[in-house]
Structure prediction request, 587 residues.
Amino acid sequence: MNADRTFRQPGRWAVLAALAVLAVVMLFPFVIVTLNAFKSPAEYSAGGPLSLPHGFYLDGIVAFWDRVDFGLKLWNSLLISGVVAVAAVVLSLLNAYALGIGRVRGRLWILVLFLVANTLPQEALVYPLYYLSKEVGLYDSKLAVILIFTVIQAAFGTYLLSSVLGQFPRGILEAAEIDGASRRRMLWGIVVPISRPTLSVLLIFFFIWTWNEFFLPMVFLISNDNQTVPVALGVLQGEKMMDATMSSASALLGIIPAVAFFLIFQRTLTRGVTVGAIK
Amino acid sequence: MRRVDPAPGAGAARPRGRGGYWLYLVPSLVLFLAIIVVPFLMNVATSFTRWSGVGTPTWIGLDNYTKLFKDERFWASFEHNVALIIAMAVVPTIIGLVLAAALFDYIAKRFGGRTASALRAAFYLPQVLPVAVAGVVWGWMLHPSYGAVNQIFGIEVNWLGDPDIALATVMAIMVWFQLGYPVVIFMAGLQRVDPSLYEAAEIDGASWWRRFWHITIPQIRPEIFVVLLTCTIAALKVFGPIFVLTRGGPGSATMVPSYFSYLNFFQKANVGYGSAIATVLALIIVVVTFLFLRVQEGGQERDQESDS
Prediction:
């Protein structure tokens, strides 16, 4: 009956059509970039941006890949984001264990401190960090960026995880305590397995957020060997050497990993959100 | 550091007391001190000096700040920030509310959940990009000579190079980039709204707009707050798109505080002045966060009063 009504009222289709048009507008840049990354410059100037590519012209992509050594950039991004994600989850967990379950004194102030740290603009830290990293010989190293983002992400993670662990079923912990379990065993044997969904969501968020960072990596990673994907693309943007299709290829190479992560992680993220809702 | 639990009897069962938990905070506190607290204090201290980055800074008191308040570029950069708050927080929230409600309360019911999810994914896709990559995409699309937009429409507009329209162009790009975030958050929020509210309103013959205004918006007010707060902070901090698209130009048509401080730090060697800009920006962000949280708390208290 419902479907019947739907077909009789053209207004409903108008709403759907309007939303579909908007979706096309949102996706338009992705389509255009993909179409033109596979064209030769001659094909682009002859057929314009909307024509379909005649074949799989890979020269633009290959030329750009070689020029920026894109494989190395991917590896740098993977390494930095992966290490940061794991280290920041561990730090957040340790903090949240002390604050949410241990309920140490002054926890409110510590949480406020972490929250403020998370909202601070990186511009207010960048120059001293730049200066200090030069002093200790960490400038232009992946380690400097890893350390900085581990702390920045952990500041947010602590805030979120503390409130999650604050609701942790205390009965389980008390029972373990009576059985003589140590603090460390309670953390790794009980708290970690039970909060695994939240931890994996945090891990994914930290990974993606670190991958997407631009400002601090751009300042700290100046040599070609250390740059991440967004830094390499952002710094090269608008260079005179780039022709239309090579620019398009560079944009496509930036889009692919981001969309891939989205597709890979989507299910874990939705599951994490659902688990949070049930709890 | 260890403190014995004062409760009598508890000491026997929990020999280590509560103080032992402090140990778990030590690694973070050390790193936090070295990477956030000390650098931030150094930044504040530097803002009272004249310093090129090498040699000894010269103490000049509040001179950087008095200069700052007379600096037209600084004020212009904050005006651009307000424009970006509109583009990144206000407009996406408003459009996002309408879209989320339309998808949840209309499309999902009339055309099925799959259609709604597919549309939501399309709106969200720009959000998955690193913001610098979004800048690269649009830098290419809007290139004055070979860009796809000019080619398709057969026009010759210098979207990012004309001082009269550069800011508007950046704003439009940021709406495109941000829109998916509120849509997803609001749709998630709508999941927890009691469906009987909508059913009752529908039976009463309330129009879609009335339901939107009287049910949807009040019910997901917490989500609206979160989105407005996080997007406003993001807009105040915006750097990547400006760096990639315009470098603050042409002239200073798209200059924002973060890029302005970056210029002073790393290109003009005015580290003291750059630090003052960064300190003011940090202060504004902390105040905005605080105000938002106050307003939100006020709203919650009102809710509780009306509930009881």
Chain B touches chain A through 86 residues (CB under 8 Å). The beta strands of chain B are 49-50, 58-59. Chain B has 15 helices and two strands.
